[in-house]
Protein 1
Amino acid sequence: MASNKLRKVVGADDDELKVDMSPMIDMVFLLLIFFIVASTVIVVKQDAEVDPPVAENSKKAKDGKGRIVINVRSDGTFRAEVSSLEFPDAEAIEDYVKKKKDEEKAKGLTPIIHLRGDKGVSFKHVRTVIRASARAGVDNVIFSVYGFDKK
């Protein structure tokens, strides 16, 4: 048995029920801003002179944090992520890795060498980077490859 008050509300023809969407839209924008601010964007600058090899069984790296990028061009020259910085020899690579390792550890991250070697480069140049990094105290190395043949 409905009360008189409920019968009046249900029986009234002049009132339409409206849902106010403003608080929900405000909440969606607040959540959107929160996720944009809380997320971190990791950008690895690629050297246009380096054409990585293709590895069909490659896996995408889970985490991009703590990477120290070293490019090895097809002519055997070594460059940092910022391609304007060129390393003349293994000692310069070692010094650079030590400096970057300290920066990454200060952030609380585990440093990892991200080696981007050209597909035409000799392995001896890649080995030079791996050995210099190991002497600098970074023994985790990941290689940059394409998962499929680009055409």
Note: The two ends are 75 Å apart (CA to CA).
Protein 2
Amino acid sequence: MSRFTHNCAGHMRRDFLKLGLTAAGGGLGFTDLLRARAMAAQAPQPSLSRPVNCILVWLDGGPSHYEMFDPKPNAPSEIRGELGTIRTSVPGVHFSESVPYLAKVADKFTVLRSVTHKDPNHGGGNHYMMTGAPTPVPVGCGAFVTFHPSFGSVVSYKRGVKNGLPAYMTLPSMTRSGGPNFLGAEHAPFVAGGDPNSKGFKVRDVVLPTDISDARGLSRRELRHSLDRMQRINNALAEDPAVSFDTFYGKAVDLISSKPAQEAFDISLEDDKTRDLYGRNDVGQRMLLARRMVEVGVPFVTVNYGGWDHHRDLFKTCKGEFMQKFDQGMAGLITDLDRRGLLESTLVVALGEFGRTPKINKDSGRDHWPGAMNILFAGAGVPRGGIIGATDPKGYYASENIYSPEDFAVTLYQKLGIDPHQILHTSSGRPVQLINGGRPIRELFA
């Protein structure tokens, strides 16, 4: 397997060509498509007695697999790093000492240690892991690109809005490739910004501004209807922006007038014990807010936690508040969902765009490394206390039960009851396969 030694400064033309050829040559023939469909059909399906929703915790920047779920205590010090290992609640399984909260609840989730791809930059890696599709052309490391609908947008497209609640939410900001692409603006995420740990937290757009009374808000809507006589072109080919504006306006009115939405966003209704479980900080309280969203029926929620591009001071960061927020919040989320009986109907996933380099650099950091990465899965029939796959003894590459981003995407969609190999159509009628290839990760289906 090829090695990538590049960082945020970009990567070499040779790798651009490799990536381009891979994308160009990766299309499926009819026989391949039938084979993929047959494999998908053979995979065990989750019970559909209750719709499965999803909370995806996005660790933007690419977290280190060494300093989380795949430590290498017997590797040389320049690879092993400064952190030790700790026992988990699963006999024989050890994590990095940086995630003690998750180690205590390891018997409730599964870690996949053997995902790999070949895109070492943030722009391409984000797109690949957030959509299941590689970028068709090389993109810049800092790029925000969309060539294919994101997981959340596809779920919105298939499930739709219910009870005035958005079908796809993201906290506190949109991820790089988390958009709808050709599915249309109505399937972009509803962004709930702000810090839910702050006093008096309110989600913008869910309540009327304090200087506008309910009666005045109603009057403004009536005035808008009376003045707005702009003709709409509803044919999808026209992509009339006025139609998209109407959709957003309608959603906003539905949200403001929805009692379930008003209550779900009011995190102050939670008792102190529950809030403490997640950690009294912005990240932990966003995970709690995500739980409240799926509890009232929002099908897909992304918690976007950035800052994992640790080219320097990795060990100091992993010992401090930054890692603790994720560790405690994630453990609290899984525990809380389980206590409430919601874990079996909620798929919880945590991942970034790639892992980190085996060798520690001169700044006590690790650089980009797509040769191996970890993904945490919980709920929706995922076996508890599992470890799937492995990397080689020094953590360079996935070496056992190797899976691709397409395999991850196929698995995620199947857990949510969505055919991953269906054909979608752009506004001009061009057919697009949702996931090109891929196979379900069978170990994740109990």
Note: DSSP finds 14 helices and 16 strands in the chain.
Protein 3
Amino acid sequence: MSDILGRVMEEQDPLRKLLGKIPGFKGYVDRVNRRSADKLLRETIASRFETLVQRISALQRDLVSQGGLRYVDDLEGAVVKLRTFIDRVRTASYGYAGFFDAVKVNSEELALLYQYDLALFESSEAVERAIDNVEAALGTEGLGAAIRALVGESQKCIDAFDKRVQVILQNQGEEA
């Protein structure tokens, strides 16, 4: 997480660095940098999950060609959940902009949100393993169970994102 923020910070132009020395402006620059880092993180997470959805689509094509039509809809359940997750990640406010404007998010709460974002990023590994298991189970009796596990991992991604939103809203409620 801090690598992405650091990457954005390194890409600052000299003018921003100079303005960062002006009292009061540093906080504004930091907030802009957080928004940029957040945008980069979200796009990275969404792209990673798009790749996983493409793998599932390829599995669906394999199932169709092998006569496994009864599992195609089950796999579509995972695709729908992952697409929902991707859409939520992509359309959430960058840098917690709306919340920064209405509510002060302190650094501890921001660190907690970054932990949730890191968990979202790492959840792609669990989904990837579940897809691997589905691939390995093709043509076996374990295919249904492997697909259910994949759908379950996909739902966990949505649940993790919802918990992140709850943290933000809880913070907003405490500030009011």
Note: Confidence is low (pLDDT under 50) at residues 95-103.
Protein 4
Amino acid sequence: MKLVLASHGGLGCEMIRAVAMILGVSVLEKAKCVELLEGESLENYYEKLSKSVDGETIVLCDLFGGTPSRAALMLLQEGKVKAVLTGFNMAMVIDLLSNGASSAEDAAKSARDAGLQGIRAFIGPSLSEVTESPGESFYRKNKEQI
């Protein structure tokens, strides 16, 4: 499996360097990054990204709906990459580079779960963890009134 981080600016490249601090420099051989430059068109970015992938590549994008994810999803539709995950974070990259999943689907599921579990919110000096979103609270209140 090959891993490519597609991002606005140098975010993907810096993420790989940060993950190398944890997993070791060998990750620099396993993961590549493709930066979207300011003012760059979707068509130009698509061409750049397509030169860095093959049919076994998993592409991680920084933001769903942005130019990097749009280009990556075009490549997925064309069968030129194996999977695309959006909204990457460090937990997802570490998981993909260390989980040894046997299939792209298993790797994508594991990375998605790792990314979601890595998102935590704390408030106040007592480090109270926020465990529900405002939408969930709204839903529960309305459900109790029914």
Note: The longest helix spans residues 104-117.
